[in-house]
């Protein structure tokens, strides 16, 4: 893929697909007839029509996957998966056999993949990542997994932020990222985000809104909370469970991510209470930043890693209203874009040690995002930046098999992504989650975690 692909198929055309389309046409000098879209509904048809791109409404399922893809893509073409409930593993396997390159922003299962109450471990991002990495084969068409804003872009922020923090603390630049984090004394890494975008439109109490994808957000928010598990941690959190397969770099909790609140910090706000939303990067970054001690021994060093998210004000209100209604099935859920009037999305890596904390990332305003391209908010533009950065890297690496952000050249990715990210910078702070804290996971918990999932949780523990 040293040149742009002859054909691109976008699977899923919600908020992110609509945001990506004008930029992928512009950045890769594509004609409309080189792009096709398959979507589960016609929500984005008006946007596709503006760019004269064909959109077919036909949900991808195991029974029709082969017939839907085989005449649309050929060797060296590209499939971009921006869907929910379309198996990443199935698409990666098909692309490998067809010689087609692949990119997604999240490792998705087929419908029902997040709801196996017989074995909660299998519903985690950790498990989905393990399955995807088992498909890795050097020399196969490149398949970049989990590469939007987060997961994806934030890993490159982590690498760049560690370099900046090492300079500030006088640490050698010759060390690996994992060795650098260990030498600095980073015990906890939060992917710390605050979305302040807002509009003035009245949102009915029974509606659920956010700034990217309601179905995508609720799917991950209702998974078990997850964290990469640091070597400094002395005990599991309430209802915490170790994985018994793979490299065991992460844990999960028998509580929904939406029910776990943690203390965090961002430059614009200072301390904030955030939701611990399960994400791919909790496991991938923890694995990447592990300093091993031997094949069978416990690692010398690994930080605790998790995503601490404060959504937009309207989303926070939607969450509270939805919980107050007993978490009933949604009648209306939609993303906010054109309704938004101001605000910004602040997304970065928060490195936390006994010396304080250091945040490194992107702050992008709604106005800046709209100046870059139509059909965007600050949130969608940060995701699109991650996609464009990955595509730039893929041009020079077409035969790497399955890879994730940690495997990629961060300087190349960030060179391509930075023009879309507003201000990128670092901030030092003396912030700690509690007085005299030794940075245990429980020090960050806002309150004890509820046991609300089902009676199956107790059965699982026992």
In the sheet with the most strands, the strands line up as 3-2-1-4-5-6-20
CATH superfamily descriptor of the largest domain: homospermidine synthase like
CATH architecture of the largest domain: 2-Layer Sandwich
Strand content: 15-25%
What general outline do the C-alpha atoms trace?
globular
CATH C-level of the largest domain: Alpha Beta
**Helical residue percent band:** 25-40%
Number of domains: 2
Low-confidence stretches: 454-458
How far apart the termini lie comes to 51 Å
SS content category = alpha/beta
Number of helices: 15
Please describe the biggest sheet, giving its number of strands, its sense, and whether it closes into a barrel. Answer: 7 strands, parallel
Calculate the mean pLDDT score and round it.
94
Total strands: the figure is 21
| Radius of gyration, whole Å | 21 Å
**Named CATH topology of the largest domain:** Dihydrodipicolinate Reductase, domain 2
